[in-house]
Specification:
This protein is an alpha+beta fold and 305 residues long. It has helices at residues 2-27, 33-51, 53-77, 82-156, 163-178, 219-227, 280-304; strands spanning 182-190, 193-199, 204-209, 231-233, 252-260, 263-272. Helix 1 (2-27) packs antiparallel against helix 2 (33-51), helix 1 runs parallel beside helix 3 and helix 4 (82-156) runs antiparallel to helix 5 (163-178). 22% of the residues are buried.
Length: 305
């Protein structure tokens, strides 16, 4: 508080001294005039430092008046005017050197601030890139886990001799990879063998049907069967192609065709009660599962023949 008070007090003294110097030149002996002119001029320099260019310009006007008044007094008193002119020149030189130094300081300050902003922007970009990289690494780790699990499932098929055991083993383990409230179903549409195999996180079941109609394929299952293409639905309620029934609890799904030597043999589908559960990577993964199931079916057919 005291420091702030003295700061304001000093500023007021500097401002008033310029005009007081002019009055003192008027009433003091000529021996004091040069000293008063010096103090008046350097008060302007102090004012520029303390107040800035706006208030300093007002002080400059006052200082010019004092200098002109002093020169007129000197001429009237018939004494040498050279010291006063030299004082004025010295003041001008010092003032412009100070102003140049202050302008350079401000330029460097603004340049530094601009550089800081650029560095902050670069830092933000680097942080964002690091976050994206870490996210990509984590996603790749999860993807690697899934494919390792798929390899383990494929290797474990040799422990199951019966066809139904193999299929149920595959589906039960595949659904464990996706977790949460999801279920997987395989429709086998091969002539003479119509099967529906289902599994969720709790249990699995295999149901044989006499014909394809008894499998009760839904409209999206029919679409995959007819078009022989993979299908992903993020939100059933927003998909105009397949209107969900009132009692239907499926909100999102991925579905792929199952082939045996380029011939359609079934439809494999994973569904969820929640919207937005699947992405294109999940669809590609399920396509690999369908390929593995197709090989199991092909071996079963070869064995039957």
């Amino acid at each position: 508080m005291i420091k702030k008070f003295f700061g304001y007090f000093f500023k007021i003294i500097v401002f008033l001294w310029v005009f007081l110097a002019g009055y003192l030149i008027f009433i003091t002996p000529k021996e004091w005039w040069l000293s008063l002119v010096f103090s008046c001029n350097f008060s302007l320099i102090a004012g520029y430092v303390l107040y800035g260019p706006v208030i300093a310009s007002v002080i400059m006007i006052g200082s010019l008046i004092v200098n002109l008044f002093a020169i007129l007094k000197v001429l009237a008193a018939e004494i040498s005017v050279i010291p006063f002119i030299m004082a004025g020149i010295l003041f001008v030189v010092v003032f412009f050197l100070l102003k140049q130094s202050d302008d350079s300081r401000k330029y460097n300050l603004f340049s530094s601030q601009d550089e800081i902003k650029i560095l902050e922007g670069d830092t933000s970009i680097l942080i964002k890139e690091e976050e994206n990289l870490l996210s990509s690494i984590n996603a790749n780790k999860e993807r690697l886990k899934k494919y390792k699990k798929l390899k383990e499932i494929q290797d474990g098929l040799k422990d199951h001799q019966v066809f139904s055991g193999k299929i149920r083993y595959v589906l039960r383990n595949i659904i464990s990879i996706f977790h949460q409230e999801k279920s997987i179903v395989l429709f086998l549409l091969k002539s003479g063998k119509f099967l529906r195999v289902e599994a969720d996180k709790n249990e699995d079941m295999l149901i044989g049907e006499k014909d394809q109609e008894s499998l009760y394929l839904q409209n999206f299952d029919e679409w995959v069967k007819v078009n022989k293409k993979a299908l992903i639905i993020s939100d059933m309620s927003k998909d105009v192609r397949f209107r969900a029934k009132e009692k239907d609890t499926i909100r999102s799904l991925i579905s792929v065709p199952v082939f045996i030597k380029d011939e359609l043999a079934g439809v494999l589908r994973i569904s969820s009660y929640e919207a937005g559960c699947f992405n294109q990577e999940d669809l590609r993964f399920l396509d690999l599962v369908a390929e593995m199931i197709g090989k199991v079916l092909a071996k079963e057919m070869d064995y039957a023949q």
